[in-house]
Amino acid sequence: MKYTIIGAAIFMAVSGAANALTITDREADCALGNVAPAGVTCGAGDRRNLDNVELSSMGDGDFFALGLGGSATFWISPDFTGPLSAIEVTFGSSYSDEVAQVYVGNDDDFQLIGTVSNKGNFDGVPLGGTSRLEFAGAFSQIRFVDQSEPGSGRDGFDLDAFNVAAVPLPAAGILLLAGMGGLGGLGALRRRKSKA
């Protein structure tokens, strides 16, 4: 019984850890052709700090302004799939259309999955909102590319946070682990019976 409980605890820890998504690298193109790695700002102020963007379903108000025509790419581990929710934060007295195209890919081979905006799928967040895109497949990279119209005081799509789902473990892998745990439990039971 002790081995069964230990096996179940190990299985739960391994399967839970395997599904935890993290951003492993970040890169921004500030629409001027200069690429900045994580921790480096692309422009003036904290709003241009790429480390402000979180992998989360809830924003914290800190964001990265893509810049008009700019982009931000994030590498995520382990692989992810849809759906995507993206939180855009817009400050000011009125809405200005802030739009970004979203691409997903592997090894810098990207495909367009749709467009997110500060007006689409408005969720009641003052002057901003959450957009949601459905897509399928297993990917390791996501890129947001600003498509906002130029205008006075605009600095493009303001990305606060985004969230995607972990690619589920294959059922065969789970069954294999469960089977190995069961065999280990049977072996322990046999040893215990042979000693008695």
Provide a short characterization of the protein structure:
21% of the residues lie in helices and 38% in strands.
Please provide a written account of the structure.
The protein is an alpha+beta fold and 196 residues long. The protein has two domains: 1-19 and 170-196; 23-167, Sandwich (Jelly Rolls), CATH 2.60.120. Helix content is 21%, strand content 38%. The chain contains two helices and ten strands; from the N terminus they run αββββββββββα. Strands 1, 2, 3, 4, 5, 6, 7, 8, 9 and 10 form a ten-stranded mixed beta sheet that branches. A hairpin with a 2-residue loop joins strand 6 (99-106) and strand 7 (109-117). Helix 1 runs antiparallel to helix 2 (171-195). The model is unreliable at 11-18, 32-41 and 121-127 (pLDDT under 50).
Give descriptors for this structure.
alpha+beta, ten-stranded mixed β-sheet, Jelly Rolls, 196 residues, 10 strands, elongated
Structural topology:
Blueprint: H1 2-18, E1 22-29, E2 35-37, E3 54-55, E4 64-65, E5 71-89, E6 99-106, E7 109-117, E8 128-133, E9 139-146, E10 158-166, H2 171-195
Parallel strand pairs: 3-10
Antiparallel strand pairs: 1-2, 1-5, 4-10, 5-8, 5-9, 5-10, 6-7, 6-9
